[in-house]
Design brief:
Length: 151
């Protein structure tokens, strides 16, 4: 895996990052640190990446478990150390999973598997941060289940 991060110029603290797969994202610092608040902070990107990593796992595990999952939202709340290095010290992951007849035990298992085995990002961050997980299930009875859809 490769990435390039380039400072965009002498004024401000914006950086353009490009992934090895060819995608670009802008990052910026806080105004009090010389940034202009034009884009997410690098630590916000780290939190977003962790959320994306674990949400991906949870949806994939639920699908493989033959669950009729229709949506997965993840709200992350994090705290950082007061002194340098300002690492994450606490992170809460709250999943809102939408689907039909989802089994709570299966959702809980998917979250646990992600955080203990598959999500490299959360496993790394667990070295400095205490992590908590919660979830809720929303029944989606508006649409027919995948098994009821006629091809």
């Amino acid at each position: 895996m490769e990435a390039t991060v380039r400072w965009t110029g002498t004024s401000g603290m914006s950086f353009l990052a490009e992934t090895g797969s060819g995608h670009a994202v802008l990052m910026d610092g806080a105004p009090e640190g010389g940034g202009r608040n034009l884009a997410p902070r690098p630590m916000e990107m780290l939190l977003l990446g962790t959320g994306g990593c674990t949400a991906y796992d949870v949806v994939l595990i639920l699908r493989k478990s033959k669950q009729d999952v229709r949506g997965c939202d993840l709200k992350l709340s994090a705290e950082r150390a007061d002194t340098e290095p300002k690492v994450f010290t606490k992170i809460n992951f709250h999943f809102v999973v939408r689907g039909r007849n989802l089994k709570p035990a299966t959702v809980e298992r998917a979250i646990k598997l992600s955080h203990e085995k598959y999500c490299s990002a959360s496993i790394m961050l667990e070295k400095t941060a205490s992590m908590t997980h919660s979830f809720e299930i929303i029944e989606d009875s508006e649409l027919p289940s995948e098994h009821e859809v006629q091809s």
